[in-house]
Amino acid sequence: MIQSRPRPRPAAWYGAAFAAALMALTGCSSGASGPLTTSAAGASAPVPSPGPLSWSTCGKNLECATIEVPQEYTEPDGARIPLAVMRHRATDPDRRIGSLVFNPGGPGVSATETLRDLPRTAGTPGAFSPAVLARFDVIAMDPRGVGASRAVRCLTEEQRADAAGTAFDPSVPGGKPLPRLLADAAAFTDGCAEHQSKKFLASLSTDNVARDLDQVRSALGEDKITYYGLSYGTVVGPMYATLFPDRVRQMVLDAPVDTNQWFGNSLPLLNDVAVASERTLDAWFRTCRTEGAAVCPFGAGDPQAAFDTLIDTLEAKPLKIAPAEGTTPGGELDGAMALEATRALAGDQNAWPLLTSALLAAQDGNGAPLFTLWSSVTVSPFPVPTAMFEAHTAVRCADWQTPAGIAAHKAAATKAVHEAERIGTRAAYSALNCARWPAPNKDRVTKPLTGAGAPPALVVAGRLDPVTPHHWAENMTRTLDSAVLLTREGVGHGSYGINTCVNAAVDAALIHGTHPADGAVCTADKPATTRPFVPANR
């Protein structure tokens, strides 16, 4: 149920005059057809409109194509990049509205693979409703450097396997001693430069991704696109709306990033993420304690103390995990791995019963459930660290302004561990790769993304989001020239697809262009740390 809650809304920071100036700076034409122009450093160059896409069937109701775009829009006749595009045809073509482009986030998540899995992802964040699928061709484009669009590669298989098998000490900020972290950062960034050109790495910025989307729009023959972005997709959306405001029909931004922080100093941003994640773990502790030991037996009324003891115990003496065919190759579960699995599961309220069960098992000496969960959130089925991490790092390093001096990172690590006692160890020193990134992007767009001239955006935020804290959504609505904020109570990253109230609001925005009152609130199911029953052996 939506509850109206008035929220004071300061005037937008910048108006149409700034948007026009930014458009002039970037050289982006506002016409819906004809040659585009773009510039990052003042000199503009015409970019020919692409021809129609050549589609081929690649699944049930799915079509795939490739579009080539300039590696640098200031050099339209230079190197080009092939980008993977996928289309899910509107299931009710007679009532089709147009094309709905979406970005599932990351950065580094493959939009085409997400769209391919769409029938199996109902009830998860970002899953489109049947009503939306009926009215839109849903368009997925793997951003440059991601998925099937020349995914960034920085590590060898041996390096990946080594990283997967390393036991991290959670008592050390960052999980490893600083010299090892610096050596890892050097190996990673050197590998990135060895596997692809520095010019390609420098081109991975969000402003180029937005320009790529406009090339796709043109190739689709659409005057305007409807857009849904989740997490990092909420950086791409406002960038597109700022560069091409008259090409936006409607826009929904779910689990939003504060774009001013994203393009600024990355260390405060990472600190915000650590604190947000710690708050979701605290919410699990609080709920378990409130339910009482009869309902939530982990910790016998003091789950926080029991958790800290379990992490210390596992770090001192990891549990051996026997191989299980089709599930895990076996190994050891140490404290850092248990902490990482807990961090991921605590951030999803629907996963809390699973987390409770796994922690109880580990407490009883059975680490297999928690180890399997750790594997699912940190490594691929091989098992090696997911390749997404490499693309994720490359995109954010192309956007971020990260201090080069180690002193700033030491201070940020100390702050993170102080403000997020358990989760801060994960954030500490996590921007070292960007500090020594070998391909600085000197011409990225970093001005406030106001989207001036575009229709009002619907911004949807969870009250306790483990990745994008709620105040980021508040900041986004202040930065955007026109936006409405809808808040979902409860824990979780992403709201559309998991909450009936939010689903109705997002569907109305995408299909009809209607929004709830600014500051409206959607209630959530009461959180629970266990399933409706407690196993007899507990």
Automatic annotation (TrEMBL):
Taxonomic superkingdom: Bacteria
GO terms for MF: hydrolase activity
Record key words, sorted: Hydrolase, Signal
Pfam family, one: Abhydrolase_4
Keyword match Hydrolase: yes
Location of the AB hydrolase-1 domain: 100-264
Stored InterPro entries: AB_hydrolase_1, AB_hydrolase_fold, Pept_S33_TAP-like_C, Serine_prot/Carboxylest_S33
Signal peptide: 1-31
Homology family: Belongs to the peptidase S33 family.
Name of the protein in its database record: Alpha/beta hydrolase
